[in-house]
Amino acid sequence: MYLHSPSFGAMSTEPPSPESQRRRQCVAATAAASAACFAPVVVLLAVLVLAPSLLPRLLLRPHHAVPYIASAELRVLSFDAAATALAYNLSAVLRFDGGPPAPGLRSRRFTAIRAAPFYAGQELGAAVALPELAAQRRGGGATVPVAWAGVQRVAPGRGARAVASALARERARGFISVKVAVRAAQDGGEESDFACVLSFPVPHKRDGSGSGGATPGVFDGGSCADAVRREF
Ligand SMILES: *[C@@H]1O[C@H](CO)[C@@H](O)[C@H](O)[C@H]1NC(C)=O
User: Fold this and answer.
1) How far is the CA of 31 from the centre of ligand 1 (A)?
2) C-alpha span between 114 and 11 (Å, rounded)
3) Which residues pair with 167 in a beta bridge?
4) Nearest residue CA, atom 6 of ligand 1?
């Protein structure tokens, strides 16, 4: 009964009114025009942004392997504004991949590995030197743990203000980002620099422990990127 009502039949069979057709065509034309205008702009912007990082990668270091952060923990990152001192305690597991099989090469060798954490532009302590590694090709890669802890004095002034404001802003957002700079040589070649961004949930003080211990913020891992040589 209901299905045969005249209005239902009209809705399902009548073509759309010319006005709505015109509107649809107009919307489609506008979308096509804006896509045509924006596509070259987007491509140009992408080239401008990516060229400085892609060109050295493509031209100068075509075969090197980029390290990976398998996991990391942040136990302490706190700033004493009066002493302009940044206390830190964090650790990470670095992974270097063996890469695809290559004729005559059983493994990739990584030497002169060093890693240092940075917060708001401040290097936290000196870079830690790590033992050399061999990663089997087609294997799961080789991992090495590294830990950094101590108190980094920051010069009063701009650097100290940058640390204080970055920490306040990040604590409010619930995440603290520490950059780890890694340098390594591959298969006896030139040393390459990498930057890894570690993003930790803010560590929480344990309730009533009184020992100053905190539940660490855990970072699940992520890839590092090529970096311009300037750290350390
Ligand atoms: C850093 O944290 C670890 C784990 O809680 C602890 O064993 C170590 O003593 C701490 N290092 C410093 C310098 O506080």
Assistant:
1) 58
2) 71
3) none
4) 89
Spatial contact of 137 and 201, defined as CB atoms under 8 Å apart: no
Q: Which residues lie below 8 Å from residue 67, measured CB to CB, with a gap of 6+?
A: 94, 95, 96, 182, 184, 194, 196, 224
- pLDDT digit string, tens, across residues 53-95: 665 555 555 457 889 999 999 999 999 999 999 999 999 999 9
pTM, entire model: 0.71
Q: Atom 12 of ligand 1 has which residue's CA nearest to it?
A: 149
Substitution site in 77, 78, 89 for ligand 1 pocket (most atoms within 8 Å of beta carbon): 89
Show the tokens assigned to 159.
């650097």
Residue owning the nearest CA to atom 2 of ligand 1 = 89
What is residue 220's DSSP assignment?
-
Determine if ligand 1 sits within 6 Å of the CB of residue 149: yes
